[in-house]
Design brief:
Helix 1 links the parallel strand 1 and strand 2. An eight-stranded mixed β-sheet has the order 3-2-1-4-5-6-7-8, with helices on both faces. Helix content is 33%, strand content 17%. It is of the alpha/beta class and 215 residues long.
């Protein structure tokens, strides 16, 4: 059992909270509007879930999931995440986040930006290229033919290993993309983004991903 902090209670954050609890973990979840607005969700999730502020969720989690709009990533608390593995589910939606030249021009990645914001944390990309509803419904036991695969990426092997284990626990194979500098391969609008694919298909889609996209 692991205590997970979740910063962000949108579709992905909520789906991850439900799935983590199903697998015996505990969750401290926060949103931008205050813990009182999460009362109904926590009541639904049951006794293994607690509503909190972002700072409290960051403090409580042995592992912390950041699943906020990219435009808000600098609001993620820094000090309580020092030394911790931080799973980044974020994606760049310029329509929501505004244009970010460094991303448009291929000079950085979404998760590299979070890593720069959290210099003493161990950021790892995870769950960014799967629809929220699919997290609970498309997993299958290890060894299942055509098992769905998801990608991960980190500059820290221990962070990658944690996500590989969590994916397997949830019913997914893993393709390790390598360092965060390569995590663009699984970002929005690339071939691997939010489609169901097995490990071989995911590897092929990652390999053919374009570094930059048409504006």
């Amino acid at each position: 059992m692991t205590e997970y902090g979740i910063i962000g209670a949108g579709h992905i954050g909520t789906a991850l909270a439900r799935t983590l609890i199903e697998h015996g973990h505990t969750v401290t979840i926060a949103n931008s509007r205050g813990p009182e607005t999460l009362a109904d969700l926590v009541a639904e999730l049951g006794p293994k879930a607690v509503a909190a502020t972002a700072e409290e969720a960051a403090e409580a989690g042995d592992v912390v999931i950041v699943t906020v709009p990219l435009k808000n990533y600098t609001a993620v608390p820094v000090a309580p995440l020092v030394g911790k593995i931080v799973i980044d589910t974020n994606n760049y939606y310029w329509e929501r986040d505004g244009r970010i030249a460094a991303l448009d021009e291929g000079r950085t990645t979404v998760s590299s930006m979070l890593q720069e914001h959290l210099p003493e944390s161990k950021v790892v990309k995870g769950f960014n290229h799967i629809m929220a509803a699919d997290i609970q419904t498309t997993g299958s036991p290890a060894g299942t033919a055509d098992r769905r695969a998801l990608a991960t990426s980190s500059d820290f092997p221990e962070a990658t290993a944690l996500v590989v284990a969590l994916y397997d626990e949830f019913g997914f194979d893993t393709v390790d993309v390598g360092p965060l500098s390569e995590s663009w391969r699984v970002e929005r609008d690339r071939p691997a983004y939010v489609i169901r694919q097995n490990k071989a298909e995911l590897e092929a889609n990652l390999a053919k991903a374009p570094r930059t996209l048409e504006a």
